[in-house]
Amino acid sequence: MNTRYIRFLIRIVSVIMLILLGWLIVRLYQIGMFNDTDTLINVLKKYGIWAPIIFIFIQIIQVVIPILPGGVSLAAGVVMFGPWLGFLYNYIGIVLGSMILFWLGRRYGRRIIDIFVSEDTLNKYIGRLDSKGWHWTFALLIFSPVAPDDALVLLTSLTKMTWREFTLILLIGKPLSIFIYSLGMLYGADWLLRILGS
């Protein structure tokens, strides 16, 4: 079997997988899985021991294709699997999704960035990407639970940051922001009501 034939088969399989993934995303969106924590939890419960793997896959999707508000899936992970396992599954899915996003940015450059990054975010950060301090800026922003992480990952893919540096920043920086964001989504409204009520 020659190399050209293998490449052709890989392309065909890739197209089929993309079509199936697209169909799956549309179907899940139609049943409300991407905008309601309770629906997401109820669907996941049906899969028993496979629920963590499916949840991690959903987290990867929501990073790569921003159709699911991150707060919905973060909160669902903690509610369904508990604080420790929920945090772990959130962390694995978000880190893997961010690495795929970084690879896509490296592979397709501005073509993909112009699709997924808003003009305001692009204008805000584009001038800083070539500066020597971008490594530190990116690291500090990844620590923050309110920074536009997915956009920052794509923008960083345009810089000379190595895979090793990017992965290290991601692995160290993500736990804190995931933890804070998860707690905020779960308990923020309750805390706010208590403060206002007192």
From TrEMBL:
| Stretch forming the signal peptide | none
Source species, domain of life: Bacteria
Q: Which residues form the VTT domain?
A: 68-183
**Protein name listed in UniProt:** TVP38/TMEM64 family membrane protein
Organism, by scientific name, is: Weissella bombi
Q: How does it sit in the membrane?
A: Multi-pass membrane protein
Task: Supply the alphabetized keyword list.
Answer: Cell membrane, Membrane, Transmembrane, Transmembrane helix
Return any one Pfam family short name.
VTT_dom
The record's subcellular location field reads: Cell membrane
Concerning PANTHER family, the annotation shows: GOLGI APPARATUS MEMBRANE PROTEIN TVP38-RELATED, TVP38_TMEM64 FAMILY MEMBRANE PROTEIN
TM regions (residue ranges): 6-26, 47-68, 88-105, 166-189
A single Gene Ontology CC annotation of this entry is: plasma membrane
